Amino acid sequence: MMENLSIHDPPPQPGAQLAGPMPQGLGRGAPPPQPQQLPPQMFTTAAQLLDLTDKKLLVWLRDGRKLTGVLRSWDQFANLVLQSTVERIFATTSDPSEPQPKGLYADQSHGIFLVRGENVLLLGEIDLDKDDDPPPGFEKAEFDVVEKLAKERRAAEKAKEKTKLKKLATLGFEGENLGEILL
Description:
The chain is α+β, with helices and mostly antiparallel strands. It is 18% helix and 27% strand.
């Protein structure tokens, strides 16, 4: 008989008796203690996607892209199929030390999107009541303008990091990718 379990079911309780009669000769004394086991639905992270199917998600990818879309399908490798996918990019125009960042954002529609599971850093369900609200401190702008500002910001940060790593190298420190940066 197959059990219909969900991610929200509590784990099996230790000492719970199995259904059915006990074989002859095994009923003497207390049964040996069983190790605590997780419910079967917790064995893979892909199974946790079951509750998120047909819901609007935010997916943050390893390359920094942020996608929103409706999760339509997934597999055992956590590959995702998103429908009505929109990529949102941000370009901050304020000083990073300010407590509330200010800047611009833009959305680009992609339609149906297949995301390889190993590229997902973070995903979560979107609150549909707040979905249409603009991000606090950000104003909507044209995609090309925001993309250009974001690329310029990344290039400036990369140059600053390269300078920092070069200085550390002169002091004898070695970084993870130091050889690549100094070349």
